[in-house]
Hints:
The chain is of the alpha/beta class and 209 residues long. Helices cover 29% and strands 25% of the residues.
Amino acid sequence: xxxxxxxxxxxxxKEFDRRPVFRDVSFSASAGETLLVTGRNGSGKSTxxxxxxxxxxxGGGTLTVTQDQDGPVREARNLFGxxxxxxxxxxxxxxxxxxxxxxxxxxxxxxxxxxDGLLERxxxxxxxxxxxxxxxxxxxxxxxxxxxxxxxxxxxVLDEPMSNLDGDGTAVVRAVMAEQRRRGILVVATNDMxxxxxxxxxxxxNERR
Length: 209
C-alpha cells in the first residue's frame, strides 16, 4: 500500500451549456479507502468520475492528488484506472493487443506475461487472441477491467461496476475491488448498493445541484 496516496476535491462544480450539473462537491480519500458516488440518473456521477480521472476539467474548484514522496512518482495519466460502460475497447484487436495498446498510450513497456496473468484473473485467457468484437457483453466488461488494471493504478475508478456481468463476472469484480482497497484507493459510482460491500466516504450528488 502507498500510505502517502491521497485524492481530494474542493468545491468542484460542472456546467454544460450553462446548465449546472453539480456544485460544491468536496471529498477526500486516502490509500486503503473506498469513496462511493451516488445520485439519480442525470445527477452527474459519470461526469464527476471523469473529472476525478482527469478526462474532463471541472468548471470550478480544485482536484489534487498526493503521492508518497518516498516512493516512485507517477505521471498523472498513470495514476488512474477507469472502468465504465461508455468506454470502448478496440473491437478489431484481441484482448492482448488491447492491453499492449493501453501500455503504449501510457508510455510504459508491455509485459506479455503480466498481461496473460491479468487475463487469467478476469477469466478471458482462453480467448485472449480472439478479436474483442467476438466477445459477449460480459466478456467485454471483464476485458475493460484488464485494460484498467494493466498498469496497476494507485486509484481505480469504477462507474456502474457490475454492468453486463453474470454471477461469475460479479465475483471477479468483487475480488478486484477487495484487492484495490488493500493497495490503493477505490472510487465506485453506482445507484445499486448491492454493487459495493463497504465504503469510507460518500458523495451524494442529489444534494449537490
